[in-house]
Task: structure prediction
Amino acid sequence: MKPSQQVEKVLEHIKKCSPGQNEFYQAVNEVLFSLLPLLNEDSRYLEYNILQRIVVPERTVIFKVNWLNDKGKIETNLGYRVQFNSTLGPYKGGLRFHPSVNLGIVKFLGFEQIFKNALTDLGIGGGKGGSNFDPKGKSENEIMKFCQAFMLELYRHIGKDTDIPAGDIGVGSKEIGYLYGQYRKITNKFDGVLTGKGVNWGGSKARKEATGYGSVYFAENYLNANDDSLQNKICTVSGSGNVAIYTIEKLYYFGAKPVACSDSRGTIYHKKGIDLTTLKAIKEITRQSLEVYAEIHHDAIYIPVNKYPKGGHAVWHIPCDIAFPSATQNELTLTDVKALYKNGCKLINEGANMPTTPDAIDFIKEKGILFSPGKAANAGGVATSQLEMSQNASMQRWTFAEVDIKLHQIMRNIFDIVYDTSIEFDCKGDLMVGANIAGFKRVADSMIEQGSI
Ligand code: NDP
Ligand code: 2IT
Result:
């Protein structure tokens, strides 16, 4: 059977065995098809059935989370941890708290994480978890109660050498604090079982900033390889959470001008440049809507979500040189990418996981827009999580500058392997193919070496 037929067969099987898991199917579809140049050249991966094996998680835990709301009533949510692949090291990946979370979402994120973590070359396997709990509108007390109830079950499945969760959408340092406190109370252990911890109790300096900073380092490397740089570039960034905020911060450092960001309710367009102090105050401290930004800065335009163009998102219809999708999956559609292209956008740099829809990616390739795939561009977060694990294990604390220098080098290494792999497989500049093949090769070669476990 030809490699392309094998890929079709695996995808058919997934459709049958994982009905309704659309995002998981989408992620697998993208990875497997982009592996064809490798599969055509090296028959070992099909001989060892690696495709069939790599799409199945090693373990999936789904559990009930009962917690007490402020009215004294018991509420119920679902919790998930998908331990996808531990060939290269302990399972590593974030936890997402968002009402849209279901098994298909957690599996897509876990699958992506395998190859992202392999690209860091830091000895970490892939996993992901979360809950359909919606932190919006919940009191401080309710968020703490939920985190404690969630950890009451999760603790038995994780461990500093087994599975090390971290943050993702809806899980920041506050939630990690409540989760860690409960883990410590239940197990009577103080170890590095979570990353993204507070810097006073085992957290790494620069972990909070790492995903956004790393995304910008990746973009700068990519532009440099094309005899260009971020200097004076107009940038738009979606989202206004952890990744978006520190993308904006680092863009200023490189002399670029970020003019827009968004949240689930609307978009801010501030032509003279997003004011980072206001943004942090609204989003990191009081967690308010971006509408408040426009109340403070009268020269900024607020576009509510219901004014979005049909099939698209306002943030991508603002003229820019570089777009940084940094909110969520499938947030950059064909409609959006056509607008970006029309407005002269040169590079789309994915800070989020799988933010670009498949038809939008096809259009990007057809038009030759530069494209940084998320599993390479946003790997700085998980890489710095591994640096946190390393500090915890050796009982050391590194300075902000020490961690940032390491992050910078790691992003350089990731760019190099992804770029070089794209050249090796005759797809020069197709970093999606480069990232998928480079990540896959590291995991698949190791699976072959470790036998039929
Ligand atoms: P946050 O929760 O800090 O921020 C998420 C932002 O995206 C918010 O502004 C949120 O708006 C917006 N958003 C989320 N979901 C939706 C949606 N369905 N529609 C519209 N807007 C939405 O998360 P992060 O910044 O940590 O994560 C952003 C992305 O980056 C995710 O794809 C995540 O998987 C990825 N990522 C995160 C890493 C990390 O270290 N945190 C590492 C690598 C990737 P609102 O507040 O209104 O909901
Ligand atoms: O998607 C991701 O890489 C993350 N949410 C970070 C994972 C981690 O373990 O730091």
About this structure: The chain is about 50% helix and 15% strand.
